[in-house]
């Protein structure tokens, strides 16, 4: 749930959401809810209103205050209770939202609770006829940091200079606690001041323009690696020592290899936009790759259903069985730092060893009729397609390991295109051809 504060989301609305969520969780035998919030100006007020809705329904509340989203997931797992995180992630300052989870960070999706909550919001949340819950506070930052460091051994790594752009988001709060305690790491901070107005750039590292400052800092400081976190610090992007971005698919492959070394033969989840280098590597290492739709709820469901040890998305969300199946950009960063510091290769060589294909990245086109444009593209490629599937939009397999995916946005009149092939020239040619049809 996400919207513009004061227009689409306000205290009355989130109080009702809190009450409806509490009713849903009480029906699943929960007795308390843990609540965290990011650094946006509206977050403390909205989280307090949500807490009031929960308390009125007879459940207790544990407020952890400022937190990253993955710290909230930690709290849900550590305390064994449902959770709510107030953040709009990478969205502009005027937005806020709520991320909900069940106990142990299990997801609450459209078909697993959100529709029930929405219906109660429309019809009116029934009042609770019992006693109100009680409110308390916990500080879990130190426990969160210690838990993450316990999952990845950084002992014995070579000294690394690590430039970090927190984007004035929650990474400025969690990075010092997690990475600052590792003696081998020399952290070079950028935009660590918590500021929900995002005065320097949007806290969305998926957009290349928001990586420019980190890229310059890496070059100027002589850093071995750069890390960029989004607003709620659940996603982590990597820049090598030359200031060049390392694709999330390469990071997925790197982490998958490390996790499979711990548990040979395990399952690894990847969404259908992730590079084909990921399932190929997993298979070569004796693991079982499982392909899913795009979106954290689908990944989390597959993590639970398959018992997967790890999952990765092209958007730099990384999911870990050891982290209750939830995503943690910080945990992914620890794996990358362990791999980099455990060898003598620079990040550029380490990253390129996992990036065996060229990719377009996601390209959005505004269209009047997404279905009609998609069918036009399929018609143009029908004689060249090796295979077509509709797991999420349409994915067209082409000769020589090339493929593309077209997906319609659920909320905007957009078609999203992703292309992968063996060379940049092949990717560019396919992008030009496909966009000429989509935008024609």
Index terms:
single chain; alpha/beta; Alpha-D-Glucose-1,6-Bisphosphate, Chain A, domain 3; 6-stranded antiparallel sheet; 14 helices; 21 strands; 36% helix
What's the short story on this structure?
By secondary structure, the chain is an alpha/beta fold. Helix content is 36%, strand content 22%.
Radius of gyration equals 22 Å
Low-confidence stretches: none
Question: Which structural class fits the helix and strand makeup?
Answer: alpha/beta
Total count of helical runs of at least 4 residues: 14
Kindly report the oligomeric state of this protein: single chain
Looking at CATH, the homologous superfamily of the largest domain is Alpha-D-Glucose-1,6-Bisphosphate, subunit A, domain 3
Care to count the β-strands? 21
Description:
A hairpin with a 5-residue loop joins strand 20 and strand 21 (414-421). The two termini are 34 Å apart. The protein is 36% helix and 22% strand. The model has no long low-confidence stretch (mean pLDDT 95). It has four domains: 2-139, Alpha-D-Glucose-1,6-Bisphosphate, subunit A, domain 3 (Alpha-D-Glucose-1,6-Bisphosphate, Chain A, domain 3, 3-Layer(aba) Sandwich), CATH 3.40.120.10; 143-244, 3-Layer(aba) Sandwich (Alpha-D-Glucose-1,6-Bisphosphate, Chain A, domain 3), CATH 3.40.120; 248-352, Alpha-D-Glucose-1,6-Bisphosphate, subunit A, domain 3 (Alpha-D-Glucose-1,6-Bisphosphate, Chain A, domain 3); 358-438, 2-Layer Sandwich (TATA-Binding Protein), CATH 3.30.310. The chain is built from 14 helices and 21 strands. The relative contact order is 0.10. Helix 8 (248-262) packs parallel to helix 9 and helix 8 crosses helix 11 (329-341). The longest helix has 16 residues, at 11-26. A six-stranded mixed beta sheet has the order 1-5-4-2-3-6, sandwiched between helices. It has helices at 11-26, 43-56, 69-79, 114-123, 141-151, 171-178, 212-221, 248-262, 277-284, 296-306, 329-341, 347-352, 370-381, 424-438; strands spanning 2-4, 32-37, 60-66, 83-86, 95-101, 135-137, 160-165, 185-190, 225-229, 236-239, 245-246, 267-271, 288-292, 310-312, 318-320, 358-359, 363-366, 387-389, 394-397, 403-408, 414-421. It is of the alpha/beta class and 440 residues long. The chain is globular. Its EC number is 5.4.2.2. Keywords: Isomerase, Magnesium, Metal-binding, Phosphoprotein. GO terms for molecular function: metal ion binding; phosphoglucomutase activity. Residues 1-118, 143-243, 249-354 form the Alpha-D-phosphohexomutase alpha/beta/alpha domain. Residues 362-435 form the Alpha-D-phosphohexomutase C-terminal domain.
């Amino acid at each position: 749930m996400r919207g513009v504060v004061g227009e689409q989301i306000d205290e009355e609305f989130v109080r009702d959401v809190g009450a409806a969520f509490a009713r849903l969780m009480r029906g699943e035998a929960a007795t308390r809810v843990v609540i965290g919030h990011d650094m946006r100006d509206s977050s403390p007020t909205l989280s307090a209103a949500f807490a009031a809705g929960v308390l009125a329904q007879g459940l207790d509340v544990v407020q952890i205050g400022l937190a990253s989203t993955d710290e909230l997931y930690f709290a849900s797992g550590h305390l064994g209770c449902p959770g709510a995180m107030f953040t709009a992630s990478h969205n502009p300052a005027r937005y806020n939202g709520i991320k909900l989870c069940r106990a142990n960070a299990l997801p609450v999706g459209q078909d697993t609770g959100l529709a029930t909550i929405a219906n109660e919001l429309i019809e009116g949340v029934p009042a609770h006829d019992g006693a109100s819950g009680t409110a308390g506070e916990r500080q879990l930052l130190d426990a969160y940091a210690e838990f993450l460091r316990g999952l990845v051994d950084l002992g014995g790594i070579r000294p690394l200079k690590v430039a970090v752009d927190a984007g004035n988001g929650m990474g400025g709060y969690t990075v010092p606690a997690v990475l600052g305690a590792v003696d081998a790491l020399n952290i070079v901070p950028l935009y660590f001041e918590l500021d929900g107005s995002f005065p320097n750039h949007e806290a969305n590292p998926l957009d290349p323009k928001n990586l420019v400052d980190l890229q310059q800092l890496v070059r100027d400081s002589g850093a071995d690696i750069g890390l960029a976190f989004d607003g709620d610090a659940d996603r982590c992007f990597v820049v090598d020592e030359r200031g060049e971005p390392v694709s999330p698919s390469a990071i997925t492959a790197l982490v998958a290899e490390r996790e499979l070394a711990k548990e040979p033969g395990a399952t690894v989840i990847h969404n259908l936009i992730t590079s084909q280098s990921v399932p190929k590597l997993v298979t070569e290492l004796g693991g079982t790759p499982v392909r899913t739709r795009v979106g954290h709820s689908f990944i989390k469901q597959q993590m639970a259903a398959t018992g997967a040890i790890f999952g990765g998305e092209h958007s730099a969300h990384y999911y870990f069985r050891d982290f209750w199946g939830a995503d943690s950009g910080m945990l992914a960063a620890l794996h990358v730092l362990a791999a980099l510091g455990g060898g003598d290769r620079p990040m550029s060589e380490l990253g390129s060893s996992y990036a065996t294909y060229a990719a377009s990245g996601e390209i959005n086109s505004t269209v009047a009729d997404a279905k009609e444009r998609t069918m036009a593209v399929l018609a143009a490629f029908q004689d060249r397609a090796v295979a077509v599937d509709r797991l999420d939009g349409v994915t067209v397999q082409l000769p020589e390991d090339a493929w593309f995916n077209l997906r319609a946005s659920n909320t905007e009149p957009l078609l999203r295109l992703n292309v992968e092939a063996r060379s940049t020239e092949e990717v560019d040619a396919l992008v030009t051809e496909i966009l000429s049809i989509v935008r024609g």
